[in-house]
């Protein structure tokens, strides 16, 4: 067990008060943040040789004909390829897997202020990134983390700033036009977070006229915009407050600048753990799956990550269930609700 995991297991809820204080200390920064709106990006990079052309054709066709985005991924493989070879060929200190992550999502990817000094990144997503690095480079610490905001996840992959993004990123059809995804590693759904004293009861008519905060580039924002255009769930919902990072929404809520936050239930549960004055309202109103995002032409890396995910799920000692118990069991209930179904992969012929 890594030292960071052990510290977290022993600390339990000890970091909640400090994390809440850290949120309030971010107030000044939040006040200075401009409203950010999502924007699109260009396509992936160059091609690969051999039979991968068939796989890429299947992947591109699936993106165009997307119905079940969580099933639009390639079958697992332990083989190498041009993307993996390029990662392994890095020299010296640069011989690391570069992973885009969050550093502000409690229990997912965050720095615990109680650990002192230069706190290491910890959390469920961080465990997965270490696991992938160990498989590709033989060292779980051969990973360089780059903190990226929510609305920069796709551009960071496309621009080559990172090899992959492991950052509570929902697999959806729009994103499949721009990046490739692994098989799902977590199941969640959109939920409403509001003060306990609020009369909001969930994703329903009680949101009428309310100010809602979402992260720019998030599935929460796109879902709300689509529902608003269709007259759901309530009239007069104000969606103008968007922020670069999801945690900023909690700060806006604490300041009284918005009435509610809409985000993935998994993230909302962590935010409720940071601030005991807020709570989840109502049930999840979507079903979504987190995946690892990579470049569209990185077929060998996608296959390798899918093999890691299969092994991670099957590992009873130090795999998916262990990470869930370490990081999420105190903020969420039955892990069976969060474990995605058995992956289904693209047919390539």
Distance between the termini: 42 Å
Helix content: 25-40%
User: How many beta-strand runs?
Assistant: 15
Q: What would you call the quaternary organization?
A: single chain
Number of helices: 13
Average pLDDT reading? 85
Biggest beta sheet attributes:
5 strands, mixed
Structural class of the secondary structure composition?
alpha/beta
- Globular, elongated, flat, extended or rod-shaped: what is the shape? globular
Overall radius of gyration: 20 Å
Unreliable stretches: 1-59
The percentage of residues in β strands lies in 15-25%
Order of helices and strands: HHHHHEEEEHEHEHEEEEHEHEHEEEHH
Compact summary:
This protein is of the alpha/beta class and 349 residues long. The chain is 35% helix and 16% strand.
Question: What does this protein structure show overall?
Answer:
- With 349 residues, the protein is α/β, with parallel strands linked by helices.
- Helices cover 35% and strands 16% of the residues.
- It has helices spanning 3-11, 16-25, 27-32, 52-64, 82-88, 124-137, 153-158, 173-176, 219-229, 246-254, 265-274, 299-314, 320-327, and strands spanning 97-101, 104-105, 109-111, 121-122, 143-147, 164-165, 180-181, 186-188, 190-195, 211-215, 238-243, 260-264, 278-281, 288-290, 293-294.
- The strands form five sheets. It has a five-stranded mixed beta sheet, sandwiched between helices.
